[in-house]
Amino acid sequence: MLYRNEKFTSLWENKSKPYPQINIIDQTLLPFVFSIIKLDSSDKAIESIKNMNLRGAPLIGVAGAYAVYFAVLESKSHKDERILREKIKEISEARPTAVNLEWAVNKTFDYSQTFSGIDAQINAALECSRAIRQDEINNSLNIGLNGVEFIEDIYSRTCKPVNILTHCNAGWLATIDYGTALAPIYVAQERNIPVRLWIDETRPRNQGSKLTAWEAYHQKLDYKLISDNAGGQLMRDGKIDMVIVGADRIASNGDVANKVGTYLKALAAKDNDIPFYVAAPKSTFDFNIESGNDIIIETRSDSEIFYIDAFINGEYSKVPIALENSPTENIGFDVTPSRLVSNIITEYGNIYPNAQDITKLLK
Amino acid sequence: MLYRNEKFTSLWENKSKPYPQINIIDQTLLPFVFSIIKLDSSDKAIESIKNMNLRGAPLIGVAGAYAVYFAVLESKSHKDERILREKIKEISEARPTAVNLEWAVNKTFDYSQTFSGIDAQINAALECSRAIRQDEINNSLNIGLNGVEFIEDIYSRTCKPVNILTHCNAGWLATIDYGTALAPIYVAQERNIPVRLWIDETRPRNQGSKLTAWEAYHQKLDYKLISDNAGGQLMRDGKIDMVIVGADRIASNGDVANKVGTYLKALAAKDNDIPFYVAAPKSTFDFNIESGNDIIIETRSDSEIFYIDAFINGEYSKVPIALENSPTENIGFDVTPSRLVSNIITEYGNIYPNAQDITKLLK
Q1: For residue B95, what pLDDT band results from cuts at 50, 70 and 90?
Q2: Cβ proximity of A125 and A69 under 8 Å
Q3: I need a surface site. Which of A34, A50, A212, B112 has the fewest CB within 10 A?
Q4: Rounded to whole angstroms, how far apart are CA atoms A183 and A281?
Q5: Are A308 and B317 within 8 A, CB to CB?
Q6: Of A228, A230, A321, the CB nearest to B310
Q7: Would you give the DSSP letter of residue B296?
Q8: pLDDT of residue A65
Q9: Which residues on B lie below 8 Å from A301 (Cβ)?
Q10: Residue B140 gets which letter from DSSP?
């Protein structure tokens, strides 16, 4: 998608010879600083995953695959299989909660090991990483093509700009291109359907006001940035036509775990007869989990509540914004029961959130 | 209530002779700096209302009454009735949305003018200000005594600490003592009923994390500070027993306008069968307004979304936390329909939120 009118993805190969390296956008510095980080080793890739220079489950998976490629490449010099296998394990564990990471790492490494000879293995790891990256792009585009139907439907009835509320960042920065929740909106824009995106700030990490607003601004979307508290009244006032959010994990019955605050918007949408959509690739579904009640909710650092990353004199500083050392309970996610979800938008089609329909389309 | 184990109210007379002056706590500096401002003239009182050194409708009303007393006192020197009446008007208009302000100003000035002779008028204005202040304290205490019944009821059934969620600041800083939403909690504490207060941060102005957390800390309450987004999941997890909030305006049918975000918590309470209480004095009811749909929602400065008051090197600075100059829609309040409100706690008793019961008790 666009940054200063130039096309970008969140991770791409550069032209270094003989072995390509990768570039990423440093997401910890957005929206105030646009900086590209070159990843040319497995250690650098691991570090960038750990430091959250890149985030979003699909993007983390792709970065993990390329990290495996670097690890295989590095084994050409050290020639020590034990070191290589330890490095693969280290990549897998760089972020504990990202399911995609382990999957992509294993897939890339296992595929490379089906070849004999180091050069063939390097090449196989590189090709596998490229394929995973391309798959993510295709998934996002297909989610966009499936989800845009709901936007087109409203537009065909109202002939007015379609007002869409989103929470957190589920755009191209979280995937490779397009995104999940934002993909239908970008496709609508390509089709000249007028949309206005309402972006929740998304406390406490402000992924909405920092990342989604940045995407929207550079994509020249019509957008509004709002506090997380405002969405309910905006729905009461008839200013929102639909809600689209991403998902971190979806249970077999269609219950959705997503960034904390999602559930409150789903309740408000229901109370105002506004459709509430969840956009997520198949990899987000966890068929080992029956309902949302079984999803474990991650608790994060208290300091996210007391301090905020503010941009002062050209750099980021953590500054206090609340009574420090107050006891907190900083849960990162919440669960939206499937009864509040109108449809789940996937790369395979749109599904009603119930066990039967989910199984039929995806299993 | 308590600050460093010493009893305080939010506004009190000092012992200056021959005419008492008043002291207030500078609420713009909390929680990082505790500073007392001496108000000794009508201009200083007006300035402190305008700059939000004090806030909360009941407190603004009391400060307005004392400002009238200063204005009458000043007229002893300048002896110009025109100047006096202009000053009274200026006090009335220091904050346009606070209904209590105009009411308290008119009451104090009108009462003083029933006396003849400047010394009698000064004395009357002072006595009237004192009475208004004492009435606010009594109202808060009575709200506390009425509301504590709901807390006691839960405690008698569970014999476990009662977990109460609140939004924004409706404590003693917003009134003179006790507060509205917090009054039942402070009364429960006095009666040794174990309570835990869950405090919403309350973006964008963070009155929860700055003011309510400060009150709770110094009152030695068991409390937790949370992001506005977290309350829904905490209710799903069974961690909240009841919600108590204040109100800015209540329509004849019981619809409640309060700090933006209140409606979302009311929805979550309903979805989880948790009682949702609104605590407010009679002066908050607007019998000229039939339903919440007729309440005009104030839109505030965009900059509240982009910047935050952070405490850096011993002073407050506005620091950027989002993509600056993004379009926003910063509504300050929302409306919670009466169907989501279990009871309204007033100084006259607890009322079911419907036109008939409200009229019967209050009109």
Answers
A1: confident
A2: yes
A3: A50
A4: 12
A5: no
A6: A321
A7: P
A8: 98
A9: none
A10: H
CA distance A359 to A290: 12
- Sorted by sequence, the CB contacts under 8 Å of residue B59 that are 6+ apart come out as B10, B11, B136, B173, B174, B175, B176
Q: What is the pLDDT of residues B303-344, one digit of tens each?
A: 999 998 888 888 888 888 888 889 999 999 999 999 999 999
- Cα–Cα distance, B105 to B63 (Å, whole number): 9
**Burial of B89: CB neighbours in 10 Å, binned 0-12, 13-18, 19+:** exposed
Question: Virtual CA dihedral for A151, A157, A159, A165, nearest 10 degrees?
Answer: -40
Q: In this complex, do B310 and A310 lie within 8 Å of one another by their Cβ atoms?
A: yes
How far is A183 from chain B, CA to nearest CA, in Å?
A: 21
pLDDT band with cut points at 50, 70 and 90 for residue A297: confident
What per-residue confidence (pLDDT) applies to A165?
Answer: 98
- B71 Cβ contact list (under 8 Å, min separation 6): B42, B84, B87, B88, B91, B109
Question: How many whole angstroms separate alpha carbon B21 and alpha carbon A127?
Answer: 79
Q: Residue B178: which pLDDT band, with cuts at 50, 70 and 90?
A: very high
Q: Are A258 and A336 in contact (CB under 8 A)?
A: yes
Considering only CB atoms, B209 lies closest to which of A239, A322, A335, namely A322
Work out the percent of chain A whose per-residue pLDDT is above 70: 99
A193-207, B102-116, B286-300: the lowest-pLDDT one: B286-300
Cα gap A175→A20, rounded to integer Å = 21
Residues with Cβ within 8 Å of B123's Cβ and at least 6 positions away in sequence, in order, are B115
Chain B residues close to A210, C-beta within 8 Å: 321-323
pLDDT band, residue B99 (cuts 50/70/90): confident
Peptide bond into A327 cis (omega under 30): no
Is residue A301 less than 8 Å (CB to CB) from chain B? no
How confident is the model at residue A176, as a pLDDT? 97
User: CB of A332 within 8 Å of any CB in chain B?
Assistant: no
**3-state class percentages of chain B: helix first, strand second, coil last, to nearest 5:** 45, 20, 35
**Residue A27: its chain B contacts at CB < 8 A?**
none
pTM (whole model) above 0.90: yes
pLDDT digits (tens, 9 = 90+) for B107-147: 999 999 999 999 999 999 999 999 999 999 999 999 999 99
Residues 6+ apart with CB under 8 A from A10: A24, A25, A27, A54, A56, A59, A172, A173, A174, A175, A176, A177
Round to whole Å and give the CA distance between B341 and B353.
7
With CB atoms and an 8 Å threshold, state whether B323 touches A217: yes
Cβ contact B271–A268 (<8 Å) = no
Q: How confident is the model at residue B97 (pLDDT cuts 50, 70, 90)?
A: low
| Phi, psi (degrees; rounded to nearest 5) at B134 | -65, -35
Tell me the C-alpha distance between B74 and B97, whole Å: 27
- Kindly state the tokens that stand for B215: 């009150």
Is A248 annotated in the active site? yes
Chain A partners within 8 Å of B238 (Cβ): none
Instruction: Tell me: pLDDT of B348 over 90.
Output: yes
Q: Looking at beta carbons, which residues of chain A come within 8 Å of B173? A: none
Interface check A186 vs B, CB under 8 A = no
Question: Does B204 lie at the interface with A, CB-CB under 8 angstroms?
Answer: yes
Question: How many residue contacts between A and B have a Cβ separation below 8 Å?
Answer: 209
∠ Cα B204 B207 B212 (to 5°): 150
**pLDDT surpassing 80 at residue A98:** no
The answer to whether A328 contacts B226, with C-beta atoms less than 8 Å apart, is: yes
The pLDDT of residue A57 is above 90:
no
Average pLDDT, integer, range A227-231? 98
